[in-house]
Request: fold
Amino acid sequence: MAEDLVLDTAIRDWVLIPLSVVMVLIGVLRYFVSKLMRSDQTPDVKIVKEGQLIIRARNLRAAANFIPAKSFRARKNYYSNEENGLLHVPKGQAQNPQAQMFSDPNMAMDMMKKNLSMIIPQTLTFAWVNFFFSGFVAAKIPFPLTQRFRGMLQNGIDLSTVDVSYVSSRSWYFLNLFGLRGLFSLILGEENATDDTQRMMQMSGFGFDPTKSLGAEKDNLDIVQHDWALPKFEQRAEAVLKKLVS
Amino acid sequence: MDKNKSSDALDEIPTFNVDNIQNNTRIINYSRTFMSIIGGVIAGILGVNGLTGIVFYFLVMAITTAGLAAKTEFSVHSYFDSWNRIVFDGILGGLMSFVLFWTYPYSLMS
Reply:
């Protein structure tokens, strides 16, 4: 029972295309604004130190097979020794950096600014869409959905016999929101702030990073099996030379 | 992607050059996004409907995978760290862009 509604070209000109164009422009604007606002961030010395320590431990883990067993053990002990090993964080101090980070006014302001710069354009655009573009069929989505989606997708349309494929402009807004992420990654390069799910994961990970990852690194280092690569290198050199000569 | 081999040819001990792996992975993502956008527009223009469209999307992804595999001259291990990268990475992410760019010509053609 799908009546074939024909969508007005006026709708196409004045709703679909302007909405997409506006969203792309807002995304670009947000990217540049976030780049401008990111200028002043002097990182905390302690946090940088811990980060570098983790990187060193990780390098040790990755290249463990290239150094002799004794020197590997010596390095491992330096990191994970119980009393004064670098990675060993006593339980009492584990809470401190996190609390310190959240009460540090500078960093809290920074996170709030980033949060706001994400939420405000989305809210504004959504309100704009609702105000201007409600009450008519905006687009036709190509695949069939069940009746339960009707309330979500056809919000302004009060006829209940219209096929669920015809959606209102609110759902066009959401479709644009998700679909333009790929486009942004193409035109803005890697460092774009338009992907909010990614950034929320980043932000929630940042607060716990120093304390838990030290313990994680220590455990990982304990797990590593040392398998010295030198004995196999002769065969490897032979194979390489053979390939070169032949 | 040609010149940036990320691991040595004869390995029992695989070593990875991290920068090159990242670069190659980024190239895969760009390629997939681009192909999903183009595929979406094509699907919309052809008037592809419903489930056929989803199948079309996976077909486009398979073509992309084949293209990437051919570009690495089928020796995937010298450019990436596992097969999964070249086959599975970024497929679901491209789906949303595909649907958006599919809806566009489809509804414009009323």
In short: The first strand of chain A starts at residue 139 and ends at 140.
